[in-house]
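quick one, 247 residues, struct below
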Amino acid sequence: MEYCDTLHPSGYRLTFCDGLVKPGTDSFLLADFVRLRRGLRVCDLGAGIGLIGLLLLNRCPELTVRCVELQRAAADLAQRNIEANGLSDRMLLYQADLRALKGVLPAGEMDLAVSNPPYFKQGSGGTPAGALRRAAREEATCTIEDVCAAAAYLLRWGGTCALIYRPERLTDLLCAMRQNGIEPKRLRFVEKQEGTPPILVLAEGRRGGKPGLVYEPPLVIFGPDGTETAEMDRINFREERKASDTP
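---
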């Protein structure tokens, strides 16, 4: 079954379906974490149905976004989302393997690479049913080292890489970044409630950057009363939704 949701304030429509990975909080967190400015050239590695690209253009329409997705079903739906929102001039899809980008995209021309990569090593963390969901959850088709190598290939010197990952694999992430010439520069942990162990980590690195890592205050999802925090309301565009629903 297919579903459709609206992203505020742009009004972009996102179509998603059963059988593919549905829109998750982690994509919204990553799209909010990255620093944007007009004219940036962006590549989303493992783009799925194109949600992160839409969220970035939702924040800053003056971007160009390249989406790389291996799985045909997800790529086809991403292309539909691009065309349905009239974004073919700003958002291009490449149905390709991020481990083999030579000949697909040029080297050293991106300002920003983003990725919501598989979190778990193959065969760990509970294997979901279906090849598409398995590829999104575990390293069946690419590892964190592959993702960082692809980002390093695409980025110009001084370009930025931003990812979301699991905190228990933070060492793997930071080592993969540095081994590929991307120096970790900024971290932000995501806590379910304030003071609890983090459940996700947001990381930013710079291609060819100098050592120096900044830890930002944790992002807290739920307040003491169990409702989502004001920051999560902002990330999920709830104020814009309320405004648009007001007669």
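The chain is about 30% helix and 30% strand.
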